[in-house]
Specification:
globular; 8 helices; single chain; about 0% strand; mainly alpha
Length: about 200
């Protein structure tokens, strides 16, 4: 279990589309608004491990065109989100009442199209789940442990976002921050396809 815990930590803490969205949302809306995103993203990723471990991952292996289509839909959606962040007008960090952060369901759903999450779930199941009678209980345990490890990892990204909000008080500085986050999101998304 220790090697898996280390893997889950590295997979959760390293920059990726979800981490960057948590950072960006916490900078704009605060920690309280970022919590549903964190819980949704962690639950979505853990659910994906469970789904892949229950046999859905094997179906994808036999349907490479579906796998490719899912990957490109995810890349297109995340690229669109990056563009939305990049092209947002310059404004200070005062939350507009009409704007809403991603939310729990949105963050959980995002995991279904996040190429990094799919690769992680396939790796977890193929490397750490056994093949014996206990396979399903191992998959459930791996899913739960992944959820528990990813919570503080994404929480760390949210705290970094709050810290960055203190630095970027002017509208121009916030626009530069958003554009930097958008470029990171775009690069993280496309690196998952290229590598």
């Amino acid at each position: 279990m220790l090697p898996f815990m280390l893997f889950a930590f590295v997979a959760s803490i390293t920059p990726g589309p979800t981490n960057i969205l948590v950072l960006s949302n916490s900078a704009r809306y605060g920690l309280k608004a970022a919590l549903p995103i964190i819980f949704g993203a962690c639950a979505g990723a853990a659910g994906l491990v469970l789904l892949v471990g229950s046999g859905f991952g094997q179906s994808l292996v036999h349907l490479p065109k579906v796998q490719t289509a899912m990957q490109w839909i995810g890349v297109a959606w995340l690229s669109y989100l990056a563009w939305q962040i990049f092209s947002a007008p310059a404004q200070a960090i005062e939350v507009d009442a009409t704007e809403k952060p991603l939310g729990l369901i949105g963050a959980a759903s995002l995991q279904l199209i996040n190429p990094k999450t799919w690769m992680m779930a396939l790796a977890v199941v193929s490397v750490f789940a056994g093949n014996g009678e206990e396979r399903q209980s191992q998959v459930v345990a791996l899913s739960l442990v992944f959820f528990l490890i990813s919570l503080p990892c994404l929480g760390t990204w949210a705290l970094m976002g709050i810290g960055s909000a203190r630095v970027f008080r002017s509208a121009k500085a916030m626009q530069r921050f958003n554009r930097g986050m958008a470029l990171l999101l775009w690069v993280a998304t496309w690196l998952s396809v290229v590598i």
